[in-house]
Amino acid sequence: MAIIFFILGLLFYKSKEKASNFLTGYNQKGDEEPKKIKHRIGCTLAWIVWIGLFIWHMFDRVKRENTKMQ
């Protein structure tokens, strides 16, 4: 499951905001430069949070498996 989410995240990142713009309805052109900057910051922040939670989950899982074996 984690691999699927990771691959989907990479595909969204590699699409250069085209996939997220399509999903959110930002395909109307106009005064989009401020939106792109905010969107890029939001995507970067989301990736950082996702990676942090993933690492936290892995440490928690290893700790639980080690306590079950003892």
Describe what this molecule looks like in 3D.
The chain is 81% helix and 0% strand. The protein is mainly alpha-helical. It has a domain at 32-70.
Number of H/I helices? 3
Q: What form results from the Cα inertia axes?
A: elongated
The biggest beta sheet reads: none
* Computed CA radius of gyration, to the nearest angstrom: 17 Å
The topology string of helices and strands comes to HHH
The proportion of strand residues reads: under 5%
List the uncertain runs. none
Helix content: over 70%
Average residue pLDDT? 78
Briefly note the structural class of the backbone: mainly alpha
CA distance, first residue to last residue: 28 Å
Number of strands: 0
How is this fold's topology laid out?
Layout: H1 2-14, H2 18-24, H3 33-69
Keywords:
0% strand; mainly alpha; 70 residues; 3 helices; 81% helix; elongated
In short:
The protein is mostly helical and 70 residues long. It contains three helices and no strands.
